[in-house]
Design a protein that fits this description.
Layout: H1 3-42, H2 51-62, H3 69-89, H4 96-122, H5 139-158, H6 170-187, E1 269-275, H7 280-295, E2 301-307, H8 314-321, E3 326-330, H9 332-339, E4 347-352, E5 355-361, H10 371-379
Parallel strand pairs: 1-2, 2-3
Antiparallel strand pairs: 1-4, 4-5
């Protein structure tokens, strides 16, 4: 290589490194700011009012930590407001090294600890909720994302700290954070406005029952045969009854706790499903259950508890499933309370005289609904 080429190469390399040194700090700031803004937005996506989504975040993430209902409402909105605020402040030249970056690192560190505890107690399963329903992510994936973000911020703070603008403006910082938090409470009230729905005087937040195509009957005609009445002499009448071997009536009856939603749920074999109307996994599960019902004699009665999230999509849900069923719509907080905070949709509980024989409660993995396993469970004559 000639001397001229060597000088050119070194000059190019030097210029290239200067560009990296110049633009890398800004790139890191934009990347982390984007992650925080998307994360905050994801926690209120896709419900325009965001009540539904943020309620899921409260039930799944805050209730297990011991938060009361009211405290969870305040904390969740404040947390999302702070996330929005820090995402915005990373793009401004005020107190980056002194306050903003340390605050971001602290928040990410808290998230890492919380997710690690979650993995230790419930395993690495389900959506951690970091990006809400916008970008499902397991707890382990979220930890890796947060650790990488912390690493980039530490590089930015230590190596490029002298290049960071250090204009001091505490008033600006506190104003941005306060405005973002206030907007969360304005656009996402701590209560849900109830709008009346035809046939449901208490609105969609109350339990709303609908009867599907396969359950329609005329109560006036139920069990009544038409035609002339024939008098029979009891002395001449023959005993046509057959001795039938008693069937196994199943386990001793108990109260499942679901009778407040469906009065006959503790009588015989029943399937109680926990679905969200817009959930693709729930729709697929309902379609499989319809297929089983159409091909299985004496298939248990199926009843559904819907989460009050996109309830207007319930007709489309049944259209996809291929049949309609008795259902009730529950407020999101009540829904997750009944299903259980550590469980997820789609949920399918096989009940026998009020006893829970099998409970599927995950979109994937060993706890997910399994058509063949349910067939096996239904064929069993006794509970072990």
């Amino acid at each position: 290589m000639s001397l001229q080429s060597t000088i050119y190469f070194r000059s190019y390399k030097s210029l290239h490194m200067q560009n990296i040194e110049r633009y890398l700090p800004w790139s890191i700031r934009i990347l982390i700011a984007g992650l925080f803004l998307v994360s905050a937005y994801g926690k209120i996506y896709p419900d325009p009012s965001a009540y539904g989504t943020i309620s899921m975040f409260e039930v799944k993430q805050l209730y297990p930590l011991g938060f009361t209902t009211e405290l969870a409402k305040i904390f969740s909105r404040s947390l999302i407001g702070v996330e929005f605020g820090l995402g915005v402040l990373l793009l401004f030249p005020f107190d980056l090294k002194k306050y903003v970056i340390p605050a971001v690192v602290l928040m990410l560190g808290v998230f890492v600890v919380h997710l690690a505890i979650q993995i230790a107690t419930t395993g690495n399963q389900g959506n951690c909720g970091c990006f809400g329903a916008l970008l499902p992510m397991t707890p382990l994936e979220a930890i890796l994302k947060n650790v990488l973000s912390i690493g980039l911020l530490l590089i930015l703070w230590k190596r490029y700290g002298t290049q960071l603008p250090e204009k001091s403006n505490i008033w600006f910082l506190s104003t941005i954070i306060s405005i973002c938090m206030l907007l969360m409470f304005v656009f996402i009230p701590t209560y849900k406005a109830v709008t009346a729905t035809p046939g449901t005087p208490n609105g969609p937040a109350s339990a709303t029952t609908a009867v599907g195509n396969d359950t329609l009957s005329n109560p006036k005609n139920k069990g009544v045969a038409s035609g002339p009445t024939i008098a029979v002499d009891p002395k001449k009448a023959k005993d046509t009854t057959k001795t039938v071997k008693p069937k196994d009536l199943g386990p001793k009856q108990k109260q499942s706790g679901y009778a407040k939603y469906f009065a006959n749920i503790d009588q015989g074999k029943k399937l109680l499903c926990f679905f969200a109307p817009s959930c693709d996994h729930c729709r697929a599960t309902a379609k499989q259950l319809t297929s089983m019902k159409n091909s299985t004699p004496d298939f248990p009665e199926l009843q559904i508890l819907f989460m009050d999230e996109a309830a207007e999509e319930i007709p489309d849900f049944f259209k996809f499933a291929g049949a309609s069923y008795n259902y009730k719509v529950l407020d999101i907080i009540e829904f997750w309370g009944v299903l259980g905070g550590n469980r997820d949709v789609p949920g399918v509980a096989y009940l026998w005289n009020g006893n829970t024989v099998k409970f599927y409660h995950s979109p994937e993995g060993p706890q997910a609904f399994n058509k063949e396993d349910l067939k096996t469970q239904l064929q069993k004559q006794k509970l072990r």
